């Protein structure tokens, strides 16, 4: 069963086309890894797929669970279960982590789960601090994953969960990604990564390589190994 | 001076002050409001409006409270052992010599025409006295309500004896139409090791001028915590409370201000430090419409630690915010810092929240509510809930 499909999708960010003519599908039961060098358009693709403000589809379409969601807003796509975990969430002035998680949990009817999610991701010490202010790289990734776990996503798109974090954080984050996969009624998740550290804990079922705003190739899990062995340039 | 002679001296000085305009805030013809008091019959107060500023009269009746409407004292009582609540007139009547030790000792009646008007024409005001070592959990609620045009100028005194601890919650509001001038004169005395938490919530109307005059003396090891929240329409507010900290004393002063329509709001705090004392002055300003808001803060001392944190958010293009933090280090042992920032809602932050499923409007509401968060840990948990409720109201009106 097809969960998400991008057809000939081009995405523009503030009048500049970054992602070009991408065809991509995510199917039920799939852990899809998207890898690619810096600036290859991975983040733009995820933001475009989730309708992030300022990211506009200029051609093609996005179909999620059979519904054409092209041109819809980010909050609409979240309401349908398509959710993005950001690479680095912004600081939210004055807003405590606990408040943000409670706002989200209230909306998804999971207020009772906030503390459990905080425990899982070891962010209890961040709950009464201003969201993002003075957080380490690993802490930022973990609070971001916490927001996703409370959103009940049908499909989570996780952007660079393992860049700039220590091994303990990678393990916690991997556990969070595994939970997202289990939460998904389609048992699917998309992970964008440079380093593939999390792949040791949450293995891909399929891998796609992006370059210069396009999906260059897709293959099985072994493709990730080749990327790690030869690098993107030699692979190209 | 004889037992009442000091009152004559206060009067003499106040007459001098009537001609003195204050340095900040728009000037107002105070005598016009004094005349209104004589000409206009008292209005009928709708006391249910007191709940808007967090006053719960039913609950207050179970502990201690004071209620004044215009220049009339309506009710006051204390059921709490060790806590006296009375009016300033009764305090003077009962013990003029003791009253002389506390009235007009921290504030000068000749300071400006508003202070002078309060000294000459004011009536009422609460006197709350908490005996040595008495710690009160339930807040003492005081409500200063205006129902008629004219001047309301109560003189409030809080005396905490050594080791006492209390929260005084004051709500001030007015009926929708009357053009009022509210000048609340407040002198607070926090004894050695005592803790006073003072929460003041204002919601006025678009034609009312407000000029609180406050001074606080905190003795050695004492603590003074103040939250001032103003969220209604108002013509103008100008206040600049002064806090004198003794050795090892602490102060936390927070102002949360919402500027609406054409209001002019000028709110500051002045803290004088001494050895081993510390102070934090925090302000959060939301300015809408064509409002102008000044947020001032001065920390002065030759020793001790002080920090000023002023943040402002312009909701509309036509509003203005001025942050004026001032540090006066009068000796090498003073450690003083400040931060100030004024801006608008961040598009990045809005976009981020939209990616979590919130509409743009909801995202803005969440960010505004977050912006006005101040440290409420200085308050007991039951009062924290009150204040959080008021802050939710502020955010919803912004």
Account of the 3D structure:
With about 240 residues, chain A is α/β, with parallel strands linked by helices. Chain A has helices at about 40-50, 75-80, 95-110, 115-120, 135-150, 165-185, 220-235; strands spanning about 1-15, 15-25, 30-35, 55-65, 65-70, 80-85, 155-160, 190-195, 205-210, 215-220. In chain A, the strands form 2 sheets. A 6-stranded mixed beta sheet of chain A has the order 6-7-8-3-9-10, sandwiched between helices. Chain A is globular. Chain A starts with a strand and ends with a helix. Chain B is globular. Chain B has helices at about 5-15, 30-40, 55-60, 90-95, 95-100, 115-120, 345-355, 360-370, 380-395, and strands at about 65-70, 70-80, 85, 125-130, 140-145, 150, 155-160, 165-175, 180, 185-190, 195-205, 210, 215-220, 225-230, 235-240, 240-245, 250-260, 265, 270, 280-285, 290-315, 320-345. Chain B folds into 2 domains: about 5-345, no CATH class; about 345-398, no CATH class. Chain B has a 22-stranded mixed beta sheet that branches. The model of chain B has no long low-confidence stretch (mean pLDDT about 95). In chain B, helix 1 packs antiparallel against helix 6 (about 115-120), helix 4 (about 90-95) packs across helix 5 (about 95-100) and helix 7 crosses helix 8 (about 360-370).
